[in-house]
Design a protein that fits this description.
Elements (H helix, E strand, L loop, with lengths): L2 H23 L12 H4 L4 H30 L2 H23 L14
C-alpha cells in the first residue's frame, strides 16, 4: 500500500476526531440550532444531542481505520478502499444525523398531499 494512503486514512480519522471535539466544545455551532427561536431551543436536549453526535463521529471515524485495512488486505485493490473510505464516513454520518433527531422534541410540519 502506498504511504500516501496511510496518511489519508489516519489523517481522515484525526480530522473527524477534531471535528467531533469541536462540536462537543461548541454545541451552538450545530446546523440549525443557532437559528432556532428561543422557544424551540427549549425543546432540544442539546447536551444529549452533542454527546450522541460526538460518540457517533468517533465510532464512525475510528471504525473506518480497521475497515479500510481489512478491505485492503482482502481485495488488494486500491480503488476499493479509497472509494470505501469516504463512503463509510458519509453513510455513517447520515445514520448519526438521523439518529440525532430523537433529541429534537419540536413538532415537525408534515407536507399535506392533495
Amino acid at each position: 500500500m502506498h504511504p500516501a494512503i496511510h496518511i489519508a486514512i489516519w489523517g481522515e480519522a484525526l480530522l473527524m476526531t477534531g471535528i467531533a471535539a469541536f462540536v462537543k466544545r461548541y454545541p451552538d455551532t450545530l446546523a440549525g440550532y443557532n437559528t432556532m427561536s428561543d422557544e424551540k431551543k427549549k425543546n432540544v436536549d442539546l447536551q444529549g444531542m452533542v454527546s450522541y453526535i460526538y460518540r457517533g463521529m468517533l465510532i464512525v471515524s475510528w471504525s473506518m481505520v480497521p475497515a479500510v485495512y481489512i478491505t485492503a488486505f482482502l481485495t488488494r485493490n486500491e480503488r476499493w478502499y479509497m472509494w470505501g473510505m469516504p463512503a463509510w464516513i458519509v453513510a455513517g454520518m447520515i445514520i448519526v444525523c438521523i439518529g440525532a433527531r430523537k433529541f429534537d422534541n419540536n413538532r415537525r410540519k408534515r407536507k399535506q398531499t392533495k
